[in-house]
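=== Structure Prediction Worksheet ===
Name of assembly: unnamed complex
Input type: mixed (protein and possibly other molecules)
Chain count: two
Listed entries:
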Amino acid sequence: DGGITQSPKYLFRKEGQNVTLSCEQNLNHDAMYWYRQDPGQGLRLIYYSQIVNDFQKGDIAEGYSVSREKKESFPLTVTSAQKNPTAFYLCASSIGGQYQPQHFGDGTRLSIL
Amino acid sequence: GQQLNQSPQSMFIQEGEDVSMNCTSSSIFNTWLWYKQDPGEGPVLLIALYKAGELTSNGRLTAQFGITRKDSFLNISASIPSDVGIYFCAGRWAGSQGNLIFGKGTKLSVKP
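=== Predicted Assembly ===
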């Protein structure tokens, strides 16, 4: 089946620790995105990538880092600099271009120990 | 920055009733999308709109791209229990570099 796979489903972070969230897609989509979702809030864009080896900061990039070494993969690292990392993280992809809808994975819930 | 105003924030309805929700923006949008999110899952695309005045249906769901290009509406007819969830509007405007802006969602509860 074609789709977007996020792993793990649940993740716990200790103080001062970096953690990496995985996002893989087999849809052959060019663009990939990371969003953060807090309770009662809409989705906020962290980083996006329109093409391999290139990515751009979104609205709330501080404390996060990404890489895009392969078309199908767009991992997100939540660094120790992110002081409030507890949230639901969603990865999305689209064929690319300004008018294409984004399709989402099932998310990773990150909590602090 | 640009924000979307989505209303109502929540709705409690009886099974079989029709539902209506909307999103408004202060800028002109060129794309409107409607998503549904179930608890603990990612949003699922319901309807995509690309032209002012466009009216598109997906089963019992109907969405419209407002003619002013600053709003969009989603209607659900004859609601059923599985319609429960959070509905998000999202849109693109000329200054968003192709990225989506999301409303804060409408939480729908359906009483059998």
